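Most newcomers find our protein records easier to grasp once they have seen one. Sequence and backbone structure share a record, each on its own labelled line. To make this concrete, we reproduce a full record directly below:
***
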Amino acid sequence: MTRYEDGSPYAYSPGTVPYGVEAVNVGWLEKDSEFPRGEAPAEFVQSLALLCRDDSRNAMRGLFPCQLPHQQDPGYPVSITVGTREVVLGNAEVRVVDQNGRWLIAPNLVHHYVTAHSYLPPAEFVEAVTARRSAPKS
């Protein structure tokens, strides 16, 4: 996967964003990345899991593994259990809208980064995910 700084203009698959919509990157991490760390609110983590299960977008054919260091191998593909369903991560994006209408786009692997690596996304992403403000489907 490609590394993009949080808040930088979205560039992974720009043709999937409607004309005139401002979209920025969140959570595009890779090996040797420096990133903000902290404990994410439980409600955010739960909402993010539901978003990954119910509203992943821009699915790709391949699966990206987590390239960050681990104490134990997370397995391949990385997955989470949401309710009774196993959700594979590393193959799509989550897209939410901040309070100003800007799209915040993250790989769905962001859930793993938050829970396994203590990645703390920007506050506007946490707020938008917790509010479950998904970007409109184009």
Observations:
- The chain has three helices and five strands.
